[in-house]
Amino acid sequence: MRTAYSVETVRNAERELMARLPEGALMQRAAAGLAAACADLLGGGSGAGRVSAVGRVYGSKVVVLAGSGANGGDALYAGARLAARGARVWAVPLAADRTHEGGLAALLGAGGRVADDPFEVLAVADLVLDGITGIGGRGGLRPDAVPVARAARGGRGVIVAVDLPSGVEADSGEVAGEALRADATVTFGAYKPGLLIDPAREYAGALRLVDIGLGPYLPSVPELEALQHEDVARLLPAPTGESDKYRRGVVGIVAGSARYPGAAVLAVAGALRGGAGAVRYVGPGGDAVIAHYPETLVHEGPPSKAGRVQAWAVGPGLGDGPGVADALASDVPVLVDADGLRLLDPATVRARTAPTLLTPHAGEAAALLGVDRAEVESGRLAAVRELAARYGATVLLKGSTTLVASPDQGVPVRVNPTGTPWLATAGSGDVLSGLAGSLLASGLDPRDAASAAAYLHGLAGRLASHGAPVTAHEVAEAVRGAWRDVVGVRAGA
Ligand SMILES: NC(=O)C1=CN([C@@H]2O[C@H](COP(=O)(O)OP(=O)(O)OC[C@H]3O[C@@H](n4cnc5c(N)ncnc54)[C@H](O)[C@@H]3O)[C@@H](O)[C@H]2O)[C@@H](O)CC1
Ligand SMILES: [K+]
């Protein structure tokens, strides 16, 4: 499990740790880890967007962009360590007389210099350390830093962000103004939420975490968590000798309409790959569903007359069709997606006795919240939390970094690490709904069902795509391969 902590939590932990260490020791730990990561990148270490061509530290050209705070201090001390190993290092102080004194002195003492002309050295740099702002930064790069940041990006050097790409919001992942896009980010003590959530995540490049000893001082519950293979493997249902199709769970799919018959087929396609023992389709698309998947149980509806299920997934391609209110009136978990989300009343959802899972994309989330889509996209974490609180439901907010929030206080939001932009294709969400509904029916709680489904769906998208366009149908077909990939870790562990 990868975890992320808010700035306030990291600062509190740092304070506790610092009180037990000699002055400046923590910054030296950070700088040592940062210099080691830079040496690796200069040596041709991969993982970052650009790869350095120099092959070694000795003789390489390094530029340190130093802001006014401790982030600049980290960068300058790391620059000093690289200078001591034979790199030619130039400092570009961006806050004139407020540069970290100790860091600058260390750099000069190790043979580094202050650049006469920042643009000249940035043009030839093999590596640029971005120490403009870290967790103390607010509101995007300042105007005087913008041309320097652009020159860094325009040069050929590998850009290494110190703790965070300067200009991004650490806690929310928002990018309020201009920010410096890095090839790699070396972060200290703990990941910050912004490193895992778009749009900021896109600025961070490859992530490296430097352990500075913060672990014992961080709370057990993080702000954000990202499941990994082994976590998902533990969640996925596995039938035993005692299982039969009913014990494995029946998922009911309420989807599709005369206008969108394909949504019914795709939601069923996802549901069949999701672990439930049987899929019951309810709606007008039964013929199309049976033509593709004869193993499906079909019924014209309404859901309350269609037979017992352990969970409903309602909404994909439903248009104005019926079924949402009926499914919501049931006493089993209900996933509501797409058309089902329109006019969804918080009071109805809150009054339910069984859990509800909402799976909006940014546009649907914006409509539910009564805000612009852009506001949801730039502040995904706040939006998903607000929706979960307002509806008393688990919410999966789809997008480049899919988030899952629980309505319960103190439960970390989950961020899905497996997505690919190729998943932004028609019908992809229908497959996800079916898959998540199937996992709900097999007994996972809504947060686990949503995050395991997003994980498998993202991985399936990658497997099916391999860097090329992919269709929703192919994503559904690749879920089995993704499932095997995930549980293979468990078998080998
Ligand atoms: N506290 C510690 O002992 C440690 C701190 N560490 C480093 O310290 C950083 C935090 O240091 P600080 O609290 O000094 O904060 P930062 O260095 O992140 O930035 C704060 C400074 O930047 C200025 N600033 C804010 N927004 C700006 C903007 N948009 N453009 C330009 N300047 C801006 C502020 O006026 C302030 O002087 C961490 O990100 C990490 O890199 C690490 O060395 C680990 C140990
Ligand atoms: K930085």
Structure in words:
A hairpin with a 7-residue loop joins strand 17 (403-405) and strand 18 (413-415). It is built from 18 helices and 18 strands. The chain has helices at residues 7-18, 25-42, 70-84, 101-109, 118-124, 146-154, 201-204, 229-235, 261-272, 286-292, 324-328, 346-350, 362-369, 373-378, 380-391, 428-441, 446-465, 472-492; strands spanning 2-4, 61-66, 88-93, 113-114, 127-131, 158-162, 184-188, 206-210, 224-226, 250-254, 278-282, 297-299, 311-314, 334-337, 356-359, 394-397, 403-405, 413-415. The chain has 493 residues and is an alpha/beta fold. The strands form 2 sheets. It has an 11-stranded mixed sheet, with helices on both faces. A 7-stranded parallel sheet has the order 4-3-2-5-6-7-8, with helices on both faces. The chain has 2 domains: 2-225, YjeF N-terminal domain (Rossmann fold, 3-Layer(aba) Sandwich), CATH 3.40.50; 229-492, Ribokinase (UDP-N-acetylmuramoyl-L-alanine:D-glutamate ligase). The mean pLDDT is 95. Bound molecules: ligand NAX and potassium ion. Residues 14, 18, 26-27, 30, 67-72, 74, 132-142, 145, 162-163, 188, 212 line the site of ligand NAX.
